[in-house]
Write a structure and sequence with these properties.
Elements lengths: L2 E9 L9 E3 L2 E3 L2 H14 L3 E5 L8 H5 L3 H10 L3 E3 L9 H10 L4 E2 L3 E3 L4 E2 L4 E6 L2 E8 L14 E3 L3 H15 L6 E6 L3 H10 L8 E3 L11 E3 L2 E4 L7 E10 L4 E11 L9 H18 L2 E4 L4 E2 L8 H11 L6 E5 L7 E2 L2 E3 H7 L6 E7 H11 L3 H4 L5 E3 L3 E6 L4 E7 L2 E2 L5 E7 H5 L1 H5 L3 H5 L5 E4 L2 H11 L11 E4 L1
Parallel strand pairs: 1-4, 4-5, 5-6, 10-12, 12-13, 13-15, 20-28, 25-30
Antiparallel strand pairs: 1-16, 2-3, 7-8, 7-11, 9-10, 14-15, 16-17, 18-22, 19-21, 20-24, 23-28, 23-29, 25-26, 26-27
Length: about 475
C-alpha cells in the first residue's frame, strides 16, 4: 500500500475583505496574513493546493474603485491553484469579467456559464491539478439561482437548477475523468442547502470525492457527509481558512483518511506576507485619500448580525430611504447591507462598503393580498435554512409570523390590519426588481397591472450620503417590525 499525503486549503466569499480587524487588541484576518498562512503551509507541506470557491469581488472600496482589477492583482500574489466563479464576479459585467480573467495569473473555472446561441462555455469547465504525484480534477459549478444579474445578459445562459448542474458534472466526469484522475472535487458557489442537494444527486460512478462550497457564508465545525461526500465551507472573508489533510491510497485509488478544520487567521496562526502587504498598502493609500472623509456620527454603533432577522442597520436604511418619499414601504434587501457593524463614526468608505451595490430604486403598487403573498414567500422555511433573499421593512410595518404553522399572526401597516383590497406602494432596488418573481413569489406581470413601475431613485447611495451629511446622532433599534414565533 502506497500512501501519499495532500493538503487542500480553501477560502470563499472574500468580498474584498483585504484589511485586518482589531478584536480585543488582537489583529485577525486580512489578506496579508491569509497569504502568510498559505505560504507557511506550502513550505511545511509542499504537496498543498489552495482553492477559492467564488466571490473574491465586492465589499471593499479597494475592489470597487478599480472594478476588480486591484483584487485580481492582489489575488495573483496570493497565488491560488484554482478559483471558481461566484455570483459577485459578474457585478461589473460579464465582458469585464472576461477581461479580468485575462489579467489573472491563476486558472478560473466554471462549467455552466455559456453563450446561448452556440452553447460555447465562457470558462474552462474543469482543471486537473498535479500535486505530489496525484492528479486532482476540480469542476466549477454555479447555477442561475445565484446569478440573477445575468438575466440582463440575453446572450448568456446558465443551468437552471442543481439537478441540471449535477447532470453536467456527470457529463464532465464521464468524458474527462480518466484512469489518471485520483480525486474529483466540486468547487461550487451555490450555498450550503444547494450543495447538500448536489451531493445527493451525485452518482457514485462519477467519483466525486469532496464538495468545497461558498455563497451562504456558512461557518462549519465539521464537514457534512452527504451521499458519502464531505461538504465543507469556510464562512466568509479572510478571518479563517478551510483545511483538509488527506492520506491517499494510490493502490486502491481512494482517500484512505482525512481531517478537516476551519483555521482562524490571526497573529498567532499566520505570519504576514510582506510582498502582498506592500502591494495592498499602495492600493490602500490611494483609496484613503479619496474615501476617508467623515459623513456623520451615529448616536452609537449599530449592528446587522444576520440577514434573516430585523436589524438596527436594516431599520436605519429602510427608514431613511422611505422618509419624504412617494412610496409607503421600503423593502431593503438584507444581503445588500454588507457590514455587520456601522458607526459611531461613519466615513464615506464605510457607507460604500456597507452598500456596494448602488443602484436605482423602483416603486410599484401592490394589493394587500399580493403583499401578504410576498411576505409569506420571504418567510418560507428556506429562509431559516439557506441563503434566500430577505428584507428589512421600513417603519409602520408590523409582522408576527409563526414558523411552525407558517402563518401570519399579525399583519399591519401604521396600526391598521392589511386587508386584501388595500393598495400599498413599495420600493426596492434594481436587483430585486429584476428578480421579482423569484425573490418575492408574486409574478411581476401581475403587479404591473396595478400601476406601471417607475424609478423613483437613480442612486441609492446618493440618498444615503446626503441624508448622513444632514443628520447627526442618528439611531435605530430593533423594535418588533418582524417578530418570529416558533
Amino acid at each position: 500500500m502506497a500512501i501519499r499525503k495532500l493538503t487542500i486549503l480553501h477560502s470563499n466569499d472574500m468580498h474584498g475583505d483585504f484589511l485586518p480587524q482589531l478584536n480585543e487588541n488582537e489583529e485577525t484576518g486580512g489578506l496579508v496574513r491569509l497569504s502568510g498562512y498559505v505560504n507557511q503551509v506550502r513550505k511545511e507541506q509542499p504537496d498543498t493546493i489552495f482553492a477559492i470557491a467564488g466571490d473574491m469581488f465586492r465589499g471593499s472600496v479597494i475592489d470597487s474603485e478599480y472594478m476588480g482589477l486591484s483584487t485580481i492583482d492582489l489575488i495573483n500574489v496570493l497565488n491560488p491553484d484554482v478559483a471558481a466563479i461566484g455570483n459577485h464576479e459578474v457585478d461589473y459585467g460579464l465582458a469585464h469579467l472576461l477581461f479580468l480573467e485575462k489579467c489573472a495569473r491563476f486558472p478560473i473555472i466554471n462549467a455552466n456559464l455559456f453563450v446561448t446561441m452556440n452553447n460555447t462555455r465562457l470558462f474552462l469547465p474543469y482543471l486537473n491539478v498535479e500535486c505530489g504525484g496525484l492528479r486532482i480534477m476540480f469542476i466549477g459549478i454555479l447555477t442561475e439561482e445565484v446569478l440573477a444579474v445575468t438575466k440582463n445578459e440575453k446572450v448568456i445562459g446558465t443551468f437552471i437548477d442543481v439537478m441540471d448542474a449535477a447532470r453536467e458534472v456527470g457529463i464532465i466526469c464521464d468524458n474527462y475523468r480518466t484512469s489518471r484522475t485520483d480525486m474529483t472535487i466540486l468547487l461550487t458557489h451555490l450555498g450550503i442547502e444547494e450543495d447538500r442537494k448536489l451531493a445527493e444527486y451525485m452518482d457514485p460512478r462519477w467519483g466525486v470525492d469532496i464538495i468545497i462550497g461558498g455563497h451562504s457564508h456558512t461557518y462549519m465545525e465539521t464537514p457534512e457527509i452527504i451521499n458519502g461526500i464531505p461538504v465543507v465551507q469556510a464562512g466568509k472573508g479572510t478571518g479563517q481558512i478551510g483545511r483538509f489533510d488527506i492520506e491517499y491510497d494510490t493502490w486502491r485509488k481512494r482517500i484512505r483518511s482525512y481531517s478537516w478544520q476551519c483555521v482562524p487567521i490571526n497573529e498567532h496562526t499566520a505570519p504576514k506576507d510582506e510582498v502582498l502587504e506592500k502591494l495592498l498598502e499602495r492600493y490602500r493609500n490611494e483609496t484613503d485619500m479619496k474615501y476617508h472623509r467623515i459623513l456623520t456620527r451615529l448616536k452609537r454603533k449599530l449592528t446587522h448580525p444576520a440577514r434573516n432577522q430585523e436589524t438596527e442597520i436594516g431599520n436605519l436604511y429602510a427608514d431613511l430611504l422611505q422618509e419624504d418619499s412617494s412610496f409607503d414601504i421600503m423593502l431593503m434587501g438584507s444581503g445588500a447591507l454588507r457590514k455587520e457593524e456601522l458607526g459611531p463614526i461613519v466615513e464615506y468608505q464605510d457607507m460604500l462598503e456597507n452598500t456596494p451595490f448602488d443602484s436605482e430604486v423602483y416603486m410599484l403598487e401592490v394589493t394587500g393580498e399580493q403583499f401578504r403573498r410576498m411576505v409569506l414567500h420571504i418567510l418560507r422555511d428556506e429562509a431559516w435554512e439557506g441563503h434566500t433573499e430577505f428584507y428589512q421593512f421600513s417603519k409602520g410595518v408590523h409582522i408576527r409570523y409563526k414558523k411552525s404553522t407558517r402563518e401570519l399572526k399579525e399583519f399591519t401597516f401604521r396600526g391598521e390590519e392589511i386587508r386584501d383590497d388595500m393598495r400599498l406602494k413599495i420600493a426596492l432596488q434594481t436587483y430585486h426588481y429584476n428578480s421579482f418573481d423569484e425573490f418575492l413569489g408574486v409574478p411581476l406581470k401581475e403587479v404591473k397591472k396595478n400601476m406601471p413601475p417607475r424609478i423613483v431613485i437613480s442612486s441609492l447611495n446618493n440618498i444615503v450620503e446626503e441624508y448622513f451629511a444632514l443628520h447627526q446622532g442618528l439611531d435605530a433599534h430593533v423594535e418588533g417590525r418582524l417578530v418570529l414565533e416558533e
